[in-house]
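F.,

This is the one I mentioned.
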């Protein structure tokens, strides 16, 4: 069975599943489109170019579509946002390129749950709990052996939106009568929470907590005596605001934890979905509670996974099977066609040893390999790589990415080295959990609180990146590198040579490597210094194409 599924709006994506295997997931924000982008005609044409034959089923994920009635009840073609029962499914006959297909739609809420369950390692028929927490929904569910979904409770509405509101309070540029936080604010607050050194709120902060968490979410302007509110417009370098960021983060988690501790008694597995599932600190806290036999979070926990989830829901409807095979590198291939000026680069085939030597010499390089990652985290196919040792490298990386200096840089690490450097004794391949660093030698990838959100790599999960890490370890003793996403600020991964050339020259990379082909900027002082110390064979290549 061939199933083509799309999520039309926020974090838009199109997924294709054939015979229980995820063939691709094309996400709207990728290829330098704006973050959280909706589907466009260009994306549909990209999808058409990937299909070899007609699908059997066309799916549309339920969505809000900015209409309150449709949010509650759906429409003729759209199953709507909320609801987890059979009543929240639409199945009918449709047409695609004049061919007859089945048409399927189920709720956005169901798409999250089916994405997490279908991508997990849990066998079909495994009872479990589910947590969906995102901008709008904050709820726990129980799933039985027949995959009946029971809503246990809406624990806290709009947890993601509430979380981001605090960032807006401290930001002088954010209008306090704005109805929603900006989409990127929650992720930035997650970074600031790692700076917190205080766990108890002051009396004024306790009042602010109650406003932010109790009752329906309101505009900041509704806060009594807003001008006297703690942390109003103080900016993000203020240490007490950073302290309160951690307090607030813990307070939101505790609302859900207290419900789980009281009500989820069966020691079942927990699957997590929704944008809050990208909060590595919270994911780690769920594991540490020991309330669940295991915890699974898909790398597409946010709405970019909704198209996959709706496709899995349809697959379950038509075949009875809710499980798929999948690979996190299921995006599109890099587009190397396009015009740019090659004369500014030393271009030559390179190998892992040479790239490791350049990284060890403090060059910062773009790294392109295979198809891009699904989900928002760069996992070694559309990455910027650097040596992990100096905090000055973190500073330079944030300057390259044109973002705030409080933003952390993640480490990518050989699985065999993860326990030694990060106390991680298992695979953690999707950068979704935090682990505590054991050394001060990895300053560029260690948060202020001593943790790091690591990605582990084996030869099976990413052979090319694994070989590079092995070569870097042979040179430095550490199978660890800085790994951050290769993207313009506010946009998804770069996926074409023209954008990559512009990024390298305008943002200060020393060069980039595309599928084993090195492009090193001749005017990079670090590259020139590397040439002087790396032997005549490297220097002789300067200028070669």
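My design for it:
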């Amino acid at each position: 069975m061939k199933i083509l599924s799309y999520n039309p709006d926020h974090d838009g994506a199109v997924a294709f599943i054939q015979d229980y295997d995820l063939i691709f997931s094309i996400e709207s924000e990728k290829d330098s489109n704006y973050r959280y982008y909706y589907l466009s005609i260009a994306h549909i044409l990209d999808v058409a170019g990937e299909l070899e034959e007609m699908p059997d089923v066309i799916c549309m994920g339920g969505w809000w579509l900015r209409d309150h009635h449709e949010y509650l009840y759906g429409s003729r073609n759209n199953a709507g946002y909320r609801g987890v029962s059979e009543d929240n499914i639409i199945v009918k006959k449709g047409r695609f390129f004049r061919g007859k297909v089945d048409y399927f739609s189920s709720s956005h809420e169901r798409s999250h749950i089916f994405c997490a369950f279908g991508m997990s390692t849990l066998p079909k028929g495994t009872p479990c709990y589910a947590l969906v927490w995102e901008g709008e929904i904050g709820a726990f569910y129980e799933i039985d052996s027949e995959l009946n979904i029971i809503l246990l409770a809406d624990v806290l509405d709009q947890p993601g939106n509430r979380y981001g509101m605090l960032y807006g309070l401290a930001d002088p540029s954010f209008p306090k009568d704005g109805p929603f936080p900006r989409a990127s604010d929650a992720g930035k607050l997650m970074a600031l929470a790692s700076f917190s050194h205080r766990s108890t709120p002051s009396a004024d902060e306790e009042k602010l907590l109650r406003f932010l968490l109790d009752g329906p979410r309101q505009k900041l302007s509704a806060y009594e005596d807003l001008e006297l509110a703690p942390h109003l417009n103080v900016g993000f370098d203020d240490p007490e605001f950073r302290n309160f960021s951690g307090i607030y983060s813990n307070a939101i988690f505790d609302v859900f934890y207290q419900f789980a501790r009281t009500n989820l008694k069966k020691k079942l597995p927990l699957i997590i979905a929704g944008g809050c599932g990208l909060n590595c600190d919270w994911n780690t806290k769920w594991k540490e509670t020991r309330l669940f036999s295991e915890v699974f979070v898909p790398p597409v926990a946010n709405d970019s996974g909704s198209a996959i989830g709706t496709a899995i829901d349809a697959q379950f409807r038509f075949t009875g099977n809710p499980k798929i095979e999948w690979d996190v590198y299921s995006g599109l291939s890099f587009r190397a066609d396009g015009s740019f000026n090659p004369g500014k680069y030393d271009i030559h085939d390179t190998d892992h040893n040479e790239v490791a030597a350049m990284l060890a010499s403090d060059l910062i390089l773009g790294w392109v390999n295979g198809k891009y990652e699904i989900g928002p985290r760069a996992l070694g196919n559309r990455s910027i790589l650097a040596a992990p040792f100096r905090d000055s490298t973190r500073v330079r990386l944030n300057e390259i990415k044109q973002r705030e200096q409080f933003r952390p840089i993640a480490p990518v690490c050989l699985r065999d080295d993860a326990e030694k450097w990060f106390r991680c004794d298992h695979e953690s391949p999707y950068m979704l959990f935090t682990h505590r660093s054991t050394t001060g030698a990895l300053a560029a990838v260690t948060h202020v609180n001593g943790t790091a959100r690591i990605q582990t790599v084996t030869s099976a999960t990413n052979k090319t990146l694994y070989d590079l890490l092995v070569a870097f370890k042979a040179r430095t003793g550490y199978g660890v590198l800085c790994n951050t996403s290769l993207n313009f600020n506010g946009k998804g991964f770069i996926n074409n040579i023209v954008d990559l050339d512009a990024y390298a020259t305008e943002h200060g990379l020393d060069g980039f490597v595309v599928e084993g082909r090195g492009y090193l900027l001749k005017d990079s002082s670090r590259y020139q210094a590397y040439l002087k110390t790396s032997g005549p064979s490297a220097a002789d290549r300067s200028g070669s194409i």
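The first helix runs from residue 41 to 50.

Talk soon.
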